[in-house]
């Protein structure tokens, strides 16, 4: 087995990097893949909380890098999905505790045993970002349909290009179709026209995400939610499957249905 | 070792250390540099290093890897001085300085290596993303977009075969005959010489246009073939 290292990054904070990482990890593991996620946000760790594994941390990434424990000891196994592991970040140190080559070495040690290594990058373009991107085979850039988030995504995509990491793939998170329809939110086409990278998924705004994050139960565990389905689809696309984009329109009311029947191809 | 000291020379300068790198293949040079740092680890700890590489051509992967390996030794690489434009651009892309004293912003414009019949121009075939800056005393032509957050500064004119949404400054040395042409022009800011453009509504600009100075103001007009 030789794992693919996927780094999830964004530039801007708060767009859903950690949520995305947690859900992709869950989605891949639920599909029978062997997955380890690494929290790259040293000093501000969150991934453990979203995955609901916070109370089981004994050793962390910095302990591994500094040789205080073996790699296996820092890996927390998820109880819901047998093939899902987490290497948490240290909370009491900062980004400089780890170097890009440490991350390359660490992932090289893990590659043999896993199918997927997901790295949750911190916000920003400094050391933490470089640490997270250094070992990546594929970089996923998460953005929201907001001007500031798209601007930062553009910058990050440029930096990834200059690190010669190949073209990044885009996840458009928290899309609100109602706002787009009213012209109050950037449409996916506007974002793609500017960023000019491959889109690997659109995740609709979904209240379930907040509830599930607070409970430590990623939405991808529940395929009935719209966001959960979106993450499961992204995971399948990562595996190379050709999955059509889901219909993000809200359920049509009876009048819209009628008007479509009367004027097919209209609108 | 004698050989290594010839490949890599280290001296103290005003703002840190200056490492001068001589001839030899890159992996050899890199290991020579790293081993001399490891030898004098306490001397180098926390040092700021500028690196003089001559006309050597270095790409982002090589320079980035060296930067990271130096960082592992507690040495921060802050500048790469090179006479090769490729290496200079690589250094800029990686956020490293390309000269020792930081000149005033107006003077960061680099003279070009090549001249053609008295006209200097750079040609760029990529989209300039946010945070990217192109500056030249000559003309600048770009195939690709200029995204918001990117900056193009030219002593002469700017021609963009793409959409301009960032900041463009033509005639930066005061040349009022400079023009800005683009397939679509929705800049964050457009300046020619000392004037700032009043940008009209987007609809007018979402077509090939040319901006130039007429009667003391910047005029933006649709590009018409018959005029030229």
Order of helices and strands of chain B: HEEHHEHEHEEEEEEEEEHEE
If you consult CATH, what is the topology of chain A? Rossmann fold
| Fourth CATH level, the homologous superfamily of chain A | P-loop containing nucleotide triphosphate hydrolases
Kindly estimate the percentage of residues of chain B that lie in beta strands according to DSSP: 25-35%
The largest sheet of chain A is: 8 strands, mixed
Q: Which regions of chain A are unreliable across 5 or more consecutive residues at pLDDT < 50?
A: none
Q: What structural category arises from helix and sheet content of chain B?
A: alpha/beta
Number of domains of chain A: 1
Uncertain runs of chain B with pLDDT below 50, 5 residues or more? 103-109
What is the level-2 CATH architecture name of chain A?
Answer: 3-Layer(aba) Sandwich
Given helix and strand content, the structural type of chain A is alpha/beta
Oligomer: heterodimer
Q: Output the CATH class name of the largest domain in chain B.
A: Mainly Beta
User: Globular, elongated, flat, extended or rod-shaped: what is the shape of chain B?
Assistant: elongated
Gyration radius of chain A, rounded: 19 Å
- The helix count of chain B comes to 6
Distance between the termini of chain B: 67 Å
Count of separate DSSP helical elements of chain A: 12
Broad CATH class of chain A: Alpha Beta
């Amino acid at each position: 087995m030789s794992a693919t290292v996927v780094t999830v990054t964004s530039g801007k904070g708060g767009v859903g990097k950690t949520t995305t990482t947690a859900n992709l990890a869950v989605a891949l593991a639920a599909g029978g893949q062997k997955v380890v996620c690494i929290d790259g946000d040293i000093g501000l760790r969150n991934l453990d909380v979203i995955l609901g594994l916070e109370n089981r941390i004994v050793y962390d990434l910095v302990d591994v890098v500094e040789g205080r424990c073996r790699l296996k000891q820092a890996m927390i196994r998820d109880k819901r999905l047998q093939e899902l592991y987490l290497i948490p970040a240290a909370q009491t140190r900062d980004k400089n505790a780890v170097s890009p080559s440490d991350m390359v070495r660490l992932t090289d040690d893990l590659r043999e045993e896993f199918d997927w290594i997901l790295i949750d990058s911190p916000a920003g373009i400094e050391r933490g970002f470089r640490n997270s991107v250094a070992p990546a085979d594929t970089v996923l850039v998460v953005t929201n349909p907001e001007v500031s988030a798209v601007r930062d995504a553009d910058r990050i995509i440029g930096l990834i290009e200059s690190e010669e990491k190949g073209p990044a793939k885009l996840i458009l998170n928290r899309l609100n179709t109602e706002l787009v329809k009213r012209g109050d939110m950037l449409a996916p086409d506007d974002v793609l026209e500017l960023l000019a990278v491959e889109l690997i998924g659109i995740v609709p705004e979904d209240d379930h995400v907040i509830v599930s994050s607070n409970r430590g139960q990623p939405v991808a565990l529940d395929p009935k939610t719209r966001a959960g389905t979106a993450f499961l689809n992204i995971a399948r696309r990562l595996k190379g499957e050709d999955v059509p984009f889901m219909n993000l329109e809200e359920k049509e009311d009876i009048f819209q249905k009628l008007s479509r029947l009367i004027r097919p191809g209209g609108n | 070792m004698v050989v290594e000291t010839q490949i890599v020379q280290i001296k103290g300068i005003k703002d840190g250390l200056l490492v001068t790198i001589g001839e030899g293949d890159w992996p050899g040079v890199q290991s020579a540099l790293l081993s001399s740092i490891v030898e004098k680890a306490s001397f180098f700890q926390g040092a700021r290093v500028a690196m003089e590489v001559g006309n050597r051509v270095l790409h982002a992967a090589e320079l980035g890897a060296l930067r990271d390996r130096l960082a592992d030794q507690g040495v921060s690489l802050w500048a790469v001085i090179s006479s090769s434009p490729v290496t200079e651009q690589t250094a800029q892309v990686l956020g490293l300085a390309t000269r020792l004293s930081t000149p005033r912003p107006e003077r960061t414009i680099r003279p070009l290596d090549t001249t053609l019949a008295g006209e200097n121009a750079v040609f760029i075939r990529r989209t300039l993303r946010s945070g990217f800056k192109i500056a030249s005393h000559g003309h600048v032509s770009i195939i690709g977009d200029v995204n918001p957050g990117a900056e193009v500064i030219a002593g002469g004119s700017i021609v963009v075969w793409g959409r301009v949404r960032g900041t463009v400054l033509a005639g930066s040395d005061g040349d009022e005959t400079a023009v800005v042409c683009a397939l679509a022009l929705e800049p964050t800011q457009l300046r020619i010489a000392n004037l700032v453009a009043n940008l009209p509504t987007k609809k007018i600009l979402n077509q090939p246009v040319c901006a130039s100075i007429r009667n003391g103001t910047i005029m933006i007009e649709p590009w018409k073939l018959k005029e030229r």
